[in-house]
Amino acid sequence: MIIDAHTHLSDTEYGNTETYIKLIKEAGIDQGVAVPGAMLDVRKMTDYITGKSKPDNPVPDNHYVENAIKTNKNIQGFICINPHDKDVSEQLENGLKLGFKGLKLSPLSHQFSFASKGVTSLASLCGEYGFPVYSHVVYSPGASTAKFVQLAKQFPKTNFIIGHMGFGPADQEAVEAARTLPNFYLETSTGNYLHIQETVKKLGTSKVIFGSEYPLSHPAIELEKILRLQITDNEREQVLSKNIKHLLQM
């Protein structure tokens, strides 16, 4: 089985559910784990990263992902919550009732610190609900790799997944966290091949999870990087499905 553990779905021409289903079927991917997309127009990503542009409407469309879950048996979902909202606990509880399997945070869209009250409240509740916390990191003091690692240390009963192998081409801080913390995992989407290969040499494959970052990247292209890793078939199965199945209690 192959599970794409990180895809963005949105009601857009470039990132809709129907296109995604078609692409993963062609790629031989069996299931996907979706989060809301289109809070940022990924076609203008450099403008957001450099601060040239700010998100126009950073409200996560969780209803679109909820509908994808209900109408496609091969899609799981993570609810995305803005930690600045006053009702984050209620939103997360509602997500649990609706069938979501984890929490997605977006510091690029929502401009928060991993040490904020909203984030720590959510991280604590995720431990109770069995929800993994997925987030990318950014080059800012409050949402750096170090801050995300500190959050994982603060809440050892909650599992944390850092997107894209961390920050930059080769985030050694993220790799070290995955090596030392039992609740810290690395997701591979848009990570470079060499960094992924060197990481599995150092850590093994029990902390590495395949994701595609659709629609920014093509699921088949991201999958090819994993298929070409110099690892055993059993190790490849860990990366492609076993690790995320364990975290989502599938």
Automatic annotation (TrEMBL):
SUPFAM superfamilies: Metallo-dependent hydrolases. It holds the Pfam family Amidohydro_2. It comes from the Bacteria. The keyword Transport does not apply. Signal peptide: none annotated. InterPro entries: ACMSD (IPR032465), Amidohydro-rel (IPR006680), Metal_Hydrolase (IPR032466). Keywords: Hydrolase, Lyase. Residues 3-247 form the Amidohydrolase-related domain. GO terms for molecular function: carboxy-lyase activity; hydrolase activity. This is Amidohydrolase. It comes from Metabacillus litoralis.
